[in-house]
Amino acid sequence: MHSLVADLDRRGIKHVYPDGGRLIQSFLGTGRVDAFTISVAPVLIGAGHRLFGELTEDVPLRLDSTADVGGFAQLRYTVEK
């Protein structure tokens, strides 16, 4: 993960959209997440990796917007630092 973040910095890339629990966890661990768009599907999944995994501390969020997107609830949050 460190080499990926270093490569993004070197290339001047400021915004990325990591998708998937493990990748999101890696970005959270680097302190590089400033916003979330979380889509909630109308199904309960019985197995898999937790989206945020084990966090070393709470991450305060501010709800910016909600939307119904084809039956999915889409929540947009800003990370409060």
Identify the overall geometry: globular
Walk across the major sheet and give the strand order.
1-3-2
Query: How would you classify the helix and strand content by structural class?
Result: alpha+beta
- Series of H and E elements: HHEEE
Q: Which stretches of 5+ consecutive residues score pLDDT under 50? A: none
Mean pLDDT: 87
**Structure summary, number of beta strands:** 3
The quaternary state of the protein chains shown equals: single chain
The percentage helix is 10-25%
CATH architecture: 3-Layer(aba) Sandwich
Give the CATH superfamily. Dihydrofolate Reductase, subunit A
Tally of DSSP helical segments: 2
Largest sheet: 3 strands, antiparallel
Concise account of the structure shown:
The protein is an alpha+beta fold and 81 residues long. Helices cover 22% and strands 28% of the residues.
What does this structure look like?
- The protein is an alpha+beta fold and 81 residues long.
- It has a single domain (17-79), classed as Dihydrofolate Reductase, subunit A, CATH 3.40.430.10.
- It has 2 helices and 3 strands.
- A 3-stranded antiparallel β-sheet has the order 1-3-2, with no helix packed on it.
